Amino acid sequence: MKRKPTLAEATISEERGVRYLHLGTPWIQGAMRIRQPQKLELEYIQRMMTWLLLRDPDHLPDTRCLQLGLGAAAITKYCHSVLRLPTTAVEINPQVIGVCRAWFHLPDDDERLTVVQADAARYVASDDQVANFDALCVDLYDHDAASPVLDDEAFYRACWRCLDDGGVMTVNLFGRDTSFERSAARISAAFGPNRVAMLKPTTEGNTIVLAWKGFDLPSRDVLTQRAEALHARWSLPAKKWVKLLSSFQPAVTP
After folding, report:
1. How many CB atoms lie within 10 A of CB 28?
2. Which residue blocks in 8-93 are alpha helix, DSSP H?
3. Fewer C-beta within 10 Å: the chain N or C terminus?
């Protein structure tokens, strides 16, 4: 019988107006500026929203969002309350869900928000989720935050399955870790050639990988136009994202 994973205790800390989520260690699992609870506080979390650059603006109002790994609920709140899009978040740890509702302004479920306590791998592998989403954000680290909890090709193929044509996935990886090339190569194997790109690492080493389904990467001019619109509407640093974006070609076997 397969053992259930040991789930770390969710705790919080506060410093200089920012509230942080921890899972049994000092490692930061998420953050919220207390006086601006909808703001995307951490840079890598902002970059997880790079999928907006690849999403056709005409289809943005119909975008169905999925987050695997709730963290401090920053992306979930932003998609639901700022972008006002139908949003589903999957989190295995019930304590994380409870702490996010009590301390990080995660609203109760409503007609646009569903928070599911479940294993992310099982959720995306379900036949019920085929082509159910258009924007998928994957940020799955345990309390050690050493490497992604789910990171094999089968998992990324399941992610591909749950995206509709025109869908985009962003994944948080550690770009300075030796496992980065292997992880990105698995994503490329699942999504196909010329369907993966990456941003340069943040100062902390987080590298956001993008993968997409059913379309070619828009030209740099189109991406720049979309970035200007995103900045004007939501003050997102999207013009910087375009500058940091480059294609990914696997150099290792996944």
Report:
1. 17
2. 43-47, 51-54, 74-77
3. N
Domain ranges of the chain: 43-247
Rounded distance between C-alpha atoms, residue 124 and residue 128, angstroms: 9
114 SS3 class: strand
Q: Please report, in tens digits, the pLDDT of each residue of the chain (254 residues total).
A: 344 556 778 889 999 999 999 987 888 889 999 999 999 999 999 999 999 999 999 999 999 999 999 999 999 999 999 999 999 999 999 999 999 999 999 999 999 999 999 999 999 999 999 999 999 999 987 545 555 677 889 999 999 999 999 999 999 987 555 688 888 899 999 999 899 999 999 998 889 999 999 999 999 999 999 999 999 999 999 999 999 999 887 766 66
Global confidence as pTM: 0.92
In the chain, what's the furthest Cα-to-Cα distance? 54
Q: How far is CA 154 from CA 98, 100, 146, 191, 247, in A?
A: 30, 30, 20, 11, 22
39, burial (CB in 10 Å: exposed 0-12, middle 13-18, buried 19+): middle
